[in-house]
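Hey, resending since the last one bounced:
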Amino acid sequence: MKIHATTVVGILHNGQIALGADGQATMGNTVAKSNVRKVRSLMNGKILTGFAGSTADAFSLIDRFEEKLNSYGGNMRRAAIELAKDWRTDRYLRRLESMLITATQGELLIISGTGDVLEPDNEIAAIGSGSMYAQSAALALKKHAPQLTAEEMVRESLNIAADICIYTNHNLVIETLK
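The structure tokens again:
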């Protein structure tokens, strides 16, 4: 049985970036751990990253992403593209089962093992089991409650997802860039 399941959402709103995740890791139909930290700060707090999928795989990918960031002078987009190319073509990396959201000032990206580097529509990125619930909530909040901060939108989106998705809990970790 694989350990998986989570919800990660990132929002760029009014010049602020917030990236958050719940803390649940699921093994089959059992909660294996309820307080996993799936959001990390990189490059002395200039870049945020969050992951969904296999935890060990995600840590390997985050390490590779950080190496790429160092190689390309902190250029997140370039590092993401180079990671995606390696992820798709390298025999070892190709087997890794995870997805990443990366964020820096004014930019939000989703990176997948199929070679995708996506800049999401509406400045909302969501991955994981509860991603569609969180994304739907975030879209509604951006449209109908624009006075909220990016952090408040992420928190509420994750709480709504946790109320609906059995693979998402209310143990939230949220990081912000201003």
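The domain at 3-171 is CATH 3.60.20.10 (Glutamine Phosphoribosylpyrophosphate, subunit 1, domain 1).

Sorry for the duplicate.
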